[in-house]
Amino acid sequence: MTASIGHSSILIALAAALIGVASPIVAARMAGERFRSVAGYAILGQFVFVTLAALALIYGLVATDFSIKYVAFNTTRATPVYYRVTGLWGALEGSLLLWEWILIIFAGIVAWVYRQRHHELMPWVIMIFSIVSAFFLFVIAFLSNPFESVFPVPLDGRGLNPLLEDANMMTHPPLLYTGFVGLTVPFAFAMAALIVGKLDEAWVVSTRRWTITAWFFLTAGNLVGAWWSYHVLGWGGYWAWDPVENAAFMPWLPATAFLHSIQVQERRRMLKVWNLALIIVAFSLTIFGTFLTRSGIISSIHAFSSGPVGGYFLGFLAFILLGSFGLLAYRADLLKEQPELDSMVSRESAFLLNNIVLVSALFTIFLGTIFPLISEAVAGSQVSVGAPYFNTVTVPLFLVLVFLMGVGPMIAWRRASMDNLKRNFLWPAIVSLSFGIGLFIWKVKDFLPLLGFTLLAFVVCSIVYDTALALRARKRIAGEGVLRGLITLTRRNQRRYGGLVVHLGVVLIMMGIAGSMTYSSEKDATLAVGHTLDIGNYKIKFEGLQGSKQPTHFRVEGAFRVFHNGSDEGVVTPALKFFPNQQSPIGRAVHQSSLSEDIYLILSGFSEVNRNQATLKVLVRPLVIWMWIGGFVIAFGTIICLMPMGKLKPED
């Protein structure tokens, strides 16, 4: 019954999506107003029936209805209820349904918010949503059906991959999917503007908040994924430049470029073609990432097993690229007349250079990601590209981005005078250079880390100095203190000051990356009970092993007492978990964090004959915690950008 309701709902939603695609075209040809309203009802129908299908699958998972093949493969009777719910996105079929559900929620909200606005654009916006929705619904209905039955009905299910039974399973995929799907909103408005030929700044202004929201979810999804990798996978890192990790990160780059360059379009009416191209690329990369993840053509710990959907996603991606850039070429005459740069020393130039660097980083990452496919096509075997390539090509580009973060928001529009440059950057440059010299005298001798930390200091100094000047002006004009002045400044220009807070968060993340990449240390040892391992300022003492039977697995824990500079920091217990359906054990690493560094312990193995011996790997990762703190700072800055603050009174 549950399977019938779910699959029937998908088919009805697909019919509604096709109506949503056709109705604006019919309305344009027949000049019929009633056909325009049909598109809105089509979105409503999709929302209702996709929601019904998603709830049906969730019910099947929670109720352990093993007559549904997807349920039998992704849950068990012993699985806690909250992990049963996460089974919705634990495998290929359910993840596509979640994607479609989020997509149609976005479409419904957009249709409701703009029901009285953008009368000319909205039917075409809904049509673009319906095209994307129809594709996903077709795949779900006919190629990757989550409601497929199984016979005979098993007594119990197979369950999720043990690595997915983690709290981050409840946050990471939904966050990432929401970021991916959220980019459909600016893409739909951009395509509608091209179809109608209304290529002023209206579509950019209307989608700015939607793009910021999608960008934030992408950022949060990648950071939560990095945290998950760091504390669950047990290898001591947080980013491996895995193809699927790259697929999640690549849309973030053009989305970030787009958020910067639309400011130039709004202010100077420049970069119209560039912005349209950026949002096309950003949305297309979400489809490309889905293709990589679900086609099975590239080996990855994150990828789903190979299925029949890969070729269809590749075809849809080709359709999106050809159709979008074809529309852009068709409207080229309307996009010709644009102002030119007044000076290379201006905010417009800084934002344009920022865009060029971001797109260059995107190209190098994309090339490294698809190189195994190229090598297989040419040489017949996949040659993977490892982290050294990505680090080598991206680190210099990201250092340039850091510098531009300090310059771009502060430099004048149109043409920066020497007085403007001196006023805004002299003291930040002096302070950051002094900081860099201090680091060199202390112990940072390598050029790239030294340059990186100096540039990060320059960004912070630029933001603090600019804000201090603005606060001094508020005190002189209105007699406001620091707190009241900050509130007034933020209310007057929340995009600017929210963006500066976001930049501070990015600085903290890059500081954590720089510290952990450059100055980490690690050591392996096989220890007997009572023996110790020394690494840096730490001493690790092995105190024994203990086994315990868990509901789903058998766990062996090692007890290790940590001493830091002679101080007892307590006992930590890294473990190995043995699952009946897994050939090799799954590790559970543990770590202790401070503002300066993490110590990270991995139980690599133990002697089954002599339980008094264990093999331990210890890593010291400087500054890692600042990555996670930076994520919260970015969230705060995004809230400032998005929250309605109301208008100031005239006397303010």
Walkthrough of the structure:
With about 650 residues, the protein is an alpha+beta fold. The protein has three domains: about 1-235 and about 270-330, no CATH class; about 415-520 and about 630-640; about 520-625, Sandwich (Tick-borne Encephalitis virus Glycoprotein, domain 1). It is about 60% helix and about 10% strand. It is built from 20 helices and ten strands. It has helices spanning about 1-30, 35-60, 70-75, 80-85, 90-115, 120-145, 170-180, 185-195, 200-230, 245-250, 250-270, 270-295, 310-330, 345-380, 385-405, 420-440, 445-480, 480-490, 495-520, 625-640, and strands at about 520-530, 530-535, 540-550, 555-565, 565-570, 575-580, 585-590, 590-595, 595-605, 615-620. A hairpin with a 6-residue loop joins strand 9 (about 595-605) and strand 10 (about 615-620). Helix 2 (about 35-60) packs parallel to helix 6 (about 120-145), helix 14 (about 345-380) packs antiparallel against helix 15 and helix 19 (about 495-520) runs antiparallel to helix 20. The model is unreliable at about 650 (pLDDT under 50).
Sheet-strand content, in percent, reads 5-15%
H/E element string?
HHHHHHHHHHHHHHHHHHHEEEEEEEEEEH
Number of helices: 20
Largest sheet: 6 strands, antiparallel
Q: For the residues shown, what is the average pLDDT?
A: 89
Q: Which consecutive residue ranges, at least 5 long each, have pLDDT under 50? A: 648-652
Number of strands: 10
Q: Round the Cα radius of gyration to an integer and report it.
A: 27 Å
Based on secondary structure, the structural category is alpha+beta
Helix share, percent:
55-70%
Instruction: State the domain count.
Output: 3
Tell me, what's the shape? globular
